[in-house]
Design goal:
alpha+beta, two-stranded parallel ribbon, two-stranded antiparallel sheet, 7 helices
Length: 147
């Protein structure tokens, strides 16, 4: 039944992750959902739990640009309004810009770790890589990544 506090909370969470609540309240979570829809429902589920620590593995995967914008807004709000710790694994600049700390991993090993202020310029400065290519250009090549 609409209008209950519980339903309002669910609607709010679905909207925060870029889903139209009226399209999903009565819908089964099954194979008829796209990968992006499933990812957003997973994120809404974690948000509903009010966790002290949450890990999001590439939360932007399979998500359209509008929903991606809603998601980054949600992460910004969480950062501002909660004391929780959020670990976000991502290659997306727009998400990384929100980080307090960044851990740069290369081939499964930590290459750099520190504050965004210290690490961000190194990531964004193509000159920091000997090959002069950005990460997307290096992907799948023999070019050494990150110095």
């Amino acid at each position: 039944a609409g209008g209950t506090g519980h339903d309002e909370k669910i609607c709010s969470l679905l909207y925060e992750v870029g889903l139209c609540p009226s399209d999903y309240l009565e819908r089964e979570v099954d194979a008829s959902l796209s990968g992006g829809e499933l990812k957003r429902i997973e994120i809404a589920t974690l948000l509903a739990r009010n966790l002290n620590v949450a890990i999001y593995d590439e939360p932007e995967a399979g998500i359209d640009l509008w929903s991606f914008g809603r998601l980054t807004d949600t992460f910004q709000r969480l950062h501002r309004d909660t004391a929780a710790t959020y670990v976000i694994i991502s290659h997306q600049e727009r998400i990384l810009e929100q980080a307090d700390e960044i851990i740069l991993m290369v081939d499964g090993m930590i290459r750099e770790m520190g504050s965004k202020k210290d690490i961000w310029p190194q990531i964004m400065d193509d000159a920091a890589c000997a090959c002069g290519l950005d990460c997307q250009e290096r992907k799948g090549t023999d070019a050494e990544c990150y110095r």
